[in-house]
């Protein structure tokens, strides 16, 4: 396993934690595909991108195969959540303005980065972000959480973050959602109810998670202190400054990247429309 050193001469930082709030999460997945291509080709340094969106539920491919998926999506809409289907693995997750998403985009130009090393890099970054609880943050599957995985992040057995990974063209995007503000149990209850509506006790070959809300929480709840997305953004910028031995480049997409972004965005929207029969 390759141990990644997050200390880099140059980091690129793209903050879309405010500008993307009212946009579809599909735009963020298109942005990460664009950066995967650019970083993988060596046209951009390793990059950290932040993103926040209004109330949405990002579904995985298996969620789309629920026996009563149309009714389940209608349920989400009655709760004022917009469903979309993402282009990476995993199952349903909640997005809202109390949840910060961070994408860590790397390439394999120097050496191969295996899957676990990509996840470990994100875990290391999160521990740097929250030194008060760093020693208490554990990475293992939290049974009963939504979108469970072997790199769920938890404190005292309660999950506050989940990590996914997308790889393309020698680029690697490790994406994490961090439940910072609000009530983690309420978000988990939404997904529990989504599956109940979508399954209606019908037996399926795929084993969907049985969500038990009490195993999930926000950092605000776990740290027992007021903490906001805005404060975590400040912390993250400080951490990236410390990880950069030369400079942090605060650069939006340039013209060539914008052209590729429009390509990926069109493809993702078309795929989402087909999946959801829009």
TrEMBL record:
**What EC identifiers does the entry list?**
2.3.1.204
Which keywords does UniProt give here?
Answer: Acyltransferase, Transferase
* One of the Pfam families matching this protein, by short name: LplA-B_cat
| Claim: Transferase is one of the keywords in the record | yes
Q: What PANTHER family would the database entry show? A: OCTANOYL-[GCVH]:PROTEIN N-OCTANOYLTRANSFERASE (PTHR43679:SF2), OCTANOYLTRANSFERASE LIPM-RELATED (PTHR43679)
Q: What else is known?
A: The reaction proceeds via a thioester-linked acyl-enzyme intermediate.
Question: What name is this protein filed under?
Answer: Octanoyl-[GcvH]:protein N-octanoyltransferase
**The species this protein was found in:** Caryophanon tenue
Kindly list the organism's lineage.
Bacteria, Bacillati, Bacillota, Bacilli, Bacillales
